[in-house]
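Recap quiz, item 2
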Amino acid sequence: MDPRTIQEVVKKTENSQVTMRHIEGVPLLGSTCDAWDSIYGFKARGDDILIATFPKAGTTWMQEIVDLILLEGDVEKSRRAPSFIKVPFLELIPLKPMPSGVELAQTMKSPRVLKTHLPINLLPPSFWEKNVKAVYVARNAKDCMVSYYYFQKISKSLPDPGTWENYFSTFLSGDVPWGSWFDHVIGWGKAMDKHQILFIFYEDMIEDPMREIRKVMKFLGKDLSEEVLENIKYHTSFQAMKENPMTNFSLHPNVDQTISLFMRKGTVGDWRNHFSVAQNIIFDEEYKKKMEGSGLNFRTEL
Ligand SMILES: Nc1ncnc2c1ncn2[C@@H]1O[C@H](COP(=O)(O)OS(=O)(=O)O)[C@@H](OP(=O)(O)O)[C@H]1O
């Protein structure tokens, strides 16, 4: 990316105010709400591949895996641009001169890989009209909460998370950008019956990345050699992505990594270092109520 573009956005961001509003009861960034008609009216193509997640569930990791599968393991080509440019973020409206997700997607050749954090009920209908394949990555809520807390501290596009104590309640009540983790995973989980959705757990990716990469490969209709798959696994490991400027967000104008890194820990169970005993009890009670009958089994440790 042109360094002048980055500087321009950094300056504007410093003076901008983050606002949140609602679309159908879901809290979203004000800029997304302002542009809602163009986002909801987005024209998907039949060969698009959608990566859908609740924030911090492993989106960037899956983006790299999908990109490398499509490129049949060509690492050089995968470094053609930062992950947030090569995979347009559908509902994101960054400050000018950065293009919006929709604008970026419209200029791209097929097959496009697209990112969204939208809950299923807000997804532009053209995705299902065109029978687009979607990979949904789900991560347990406790680790998502911790990861999101740190990300809200470093992202200038998101509201400040406040104290951990306050954030715990805010997250649990679903008052964070993109709303309730519970509604998100349950909604996308149910949609598996009707649409081409591959549901992948972050915890499974940590446990056995090769197994999960193979699932994605098959879903995308590819057949790659063991050697290529090993290479993809290596280049999408936490360490490799942490060192790669194209994936570690060091080139992102709205993320200040002096407080915390984007590639922060990449583990299962970091919530134990943040949840108090009381918070854990409150969380588990709420979780039981909300997730009963969902058929989804999340692991909070391996
Ligand atoms: N390769 C790999 N292996 C393991 N973990 C990884 C990997 N890549 C990203 N991550 C971790 O994913 C978290 C960021 O999530 P997202 O990419 O979904 O963020 S975002 O919502 O798109 O901003 C964030 O989690 P935390 O470390 O727990 O904060 C990243 O470290």
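DSSP finds 16 helices and six strands in the chain.
The radius of gyration is 18 Å.
End of item.
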